[in-house]
Prior knowledge:
Elements: H1 2-8, E1 20-25, E2 39-44, E3 48-56, H2 67-74, E4 79-83, H3 93-110, E5 119-131, H4 133-142, E6 157-161, E7 191-196, H5 218-223, E8 229-234, H6 249-257, H7 267-286, H8 290-297, E9 311-313
Helix pairs in contact: 2-7, 3-4
Amino acid sequence: xxxxxxxxxxxxxxxxxxxxxxxxxxxxxxxxxxxxxxxxxxxxxxxxxxxxxxxxxxxxxxxxxxxxxxxxxxxxxxxxxxxxxxxxxxxxxxxxxxxxxxxxxxxxxxxxxxxxxxxxxxxxxxxxxxxxxxxxxxxxxxxxxxxxxxxxxxxxxxxxxxxxxxxxxxxxxxxxxxxxxxxxxxxxxxxxxxxxxxxxxxxxxxxxxxxxxxxxxxxxxxxxxxxxxxxxxxxxxxxxxxxxxxxxxxxxxxxxxxxxxxxxxxxxxxxxxxxxxxxxxxxxxxxxxxxxxxxxxxxxxxxxxxxxxxxxxxxxxxx
Length: 319
């Protein structure tokens, strides 16, 4: 890929070559293979075995608000499993973490039964991705806070998309995972943290506080990660700008108006988020450094302006 990738831009930011399909499944007492929580699965339709990525939505959001990003990642050869961890009122943070563990336990036995017949999940390559409070959920699961999770479960990668651990430092959500000690997270997988430049800013003063306040946002999550770790910040976009356009219902309306927004055209932010996830998963799962290295070397390849410069620190054992 090398020179051609640098000349044409990183292909991770463009849709992949694989057609995809969306499959939805709800819990059912009559069907033993049904998931413990409602799930939306986005998968390639071309025959093959693909790594599984669990994607956790943000506070009070809907899993289908991320359809564009999920389809982007799936088109590059991944199976996305996005559980709906809340519907009416969001449960406590620990409940969401435990529910995430239940869905992860369900997948090795029953996910295959919901996929197109020629599409198979790879049982050895499982990654965690989450946005906002879902980013914190992904970290909490990786750190062992899901009491429901099979302790033998291993993960290949972790990506937090503008993760948030509370409304401010004094109001952190359960479980408390931030320690405020550099490189304190004991994680045995590569970690990428994606941030937004506008997430820590007030929309209006008052009554709209920041959606991703300093002290509990992407900066602190990255600070507490150990190598291998990466950090990419979309300087001109806000906390919800990676969601789809035309969000439905009252929840969609609130998601579209509570946080400070960036550019009116959010497609660049969606391609940025999808591309970073794809490039980092290719690196973590397949050992393909070409695209992540291209982005770090030349941030202008990104459809969203990256500032400050991206950081990518490899552990010696992963080089």
